[in-house]
Amino acid sequence: VGYLFTSWLQGYVSRPILKLADFANVISSGGNYKLRISRESDDEIGLLYERFNEMLEQIGHRDAASKKAQQEISLANEKLNLILDNAPFGFLHYDENGMISTCNKGHEQIFDLSRDFLIGKNLRETIHDPMMLKSLQESLEGKLSAYSGLYTSTTSGKSVYIRAIYTPLFSEEHKLIGGVGIFEDISEQKKSEKLMVEKEAAVFANKAKSIFLANMSHEIRTPLNAILGFSQLMEKDSTLSRDQRENVTIINSSGEHLLALEDLGLGAAPVDGDGDKLLAAVAQDRDEMGEVLDG
Questions:
Q1: Residue 273 φ/ψ, nearest 5 degrees
Q2: Which residues pair with 274 in a beta bridge?
Q3: pLDDT, tens digit (0-9, with 9 covering 90-100), for 79-101
């Protein structure tokens, strides 16, 4: 009788415990915290089942909150990546050892290097420009640093004028945990600066040529008046031969042509095609007079 009672008591106690264990395995494998074990009695076993169901409800609430938080974090990361990928600059994140963790499309386009290629690489090994490497190292020492200049990637071979800012990142305990790099392609700006320099040089050349033409006008008029006066006196000389008179006529004609050009504004002639035509005409008349005088 004692043996039978002991066996019955053992089964009475162990059977609901085993049932609870099996139910716990179902919850653990399926992850469904909405399931509940049915209470079959009002004794201690029944109370154990009730407390187990209450525990499942609490775990379910926490699991739902955790999943919601993970979804919100995932959504926030997607939005952040979308914003960074559409940003008008290059973005790069690296840890405290200089290992690249991510970059955006802007960085890929500036340096012509894919994100998959860069992630996991150490910036100290990919940067070969000494000044840019110095800026990176300063950020890894906790200092804000900047770089600007013509950078040539030894990996892609692309050369581009960039402006870069390296910013260190710190934890709440003020421990360095890495940094971010912001990169801007300033090639168009450099082109604009070059065009501005060329424009200023052209303006200076125009002023210089205008001054030259003004001085040339003065230098032409003074001796030319003397030449014309002398040639007009020679025309009155009755002893001139026919060839000599023709030469005097050429001198007069060329001289008057030069004076006409000067009166048209040779000193203020624009530095363009018209100004060049005036200079050519002056040169032609000068050569004709020179031939006559040399003859």
A1: -60, -40
A2: none
A3: 888 888 888 899 999 999 999 99
Given a cut of 70, whether residue 270 has pLDDT beyond it is: no
Spatial separation of the C-alpha atoms in residues 277 and 90, rounded to whole Å: 53
CA distance 138 to 218: 64
User: Using an 8 Å Cβ cutoff, are 26 and 35 in contact?
Assistant: yes
Closest residue by Cα to residue 267 from 217, 205, 231, 196: 217
What ranges in 36-95 are assigned the alpha helix state H?
44-85
Beta strands in 110-256 (DSSP E): 145-152, 159-170, 176-185
Residue 271: helix, strand or coil by DSSP?
A: coil
Q: Let me know the angle formed at the C-alpha of 32 by 28 and 35, rounded to the nearest 5 degrees.
A: 105
- CA-to-CA distance for 109 and 74, rounded, in angstroms? 26
pTM as predicted: 0.53
At 155, list the tokens: 């990996």
Residue 277 to residues 174, 252, 265, 267: CA-CA distances in angstroms? 74, 21, 13, 13
CA distance 290 to 295: 8
pLDDT, one tens digit per residue, over 160-217 is 999 999 999 999 999 999 999 999 999 888 888 888 888 888 888 888 877 777 777 7
Across the beta sheet with 159-170, the strand order is 100-103, 90-95, 176-185, 159-170, 145-152
pLDDT band for position 6 (50/70/90)? low
Neighbours of 263 (CB within 10 A): 10
Least confident range from 41-45, 128-132, 188-192, 272-276: namely 272-276
Beta bridge partners of 165: 146, 182
CB 148 within 8 A of CB 163: yes
Show the tokens assigned to 222: 């003074």
Given a contact cutoff of 8 angstroms between Cβ atoms, the answer to whether 290 and 240 are in contact is no
